[in-house]
Amino acid sequence: MPDAFVWYHASEELEPALLAWMDVVETEAGVRGKLYVRKENEKVTFMECYSDVSRPTILRIEQLAAANTLFTSLTRRCESFIRLDNHAPRYDQ
Question: How far is CA 16 from CA 2, 59, 85, in A?
Answer without folding.
Answer: 27, 24, 35
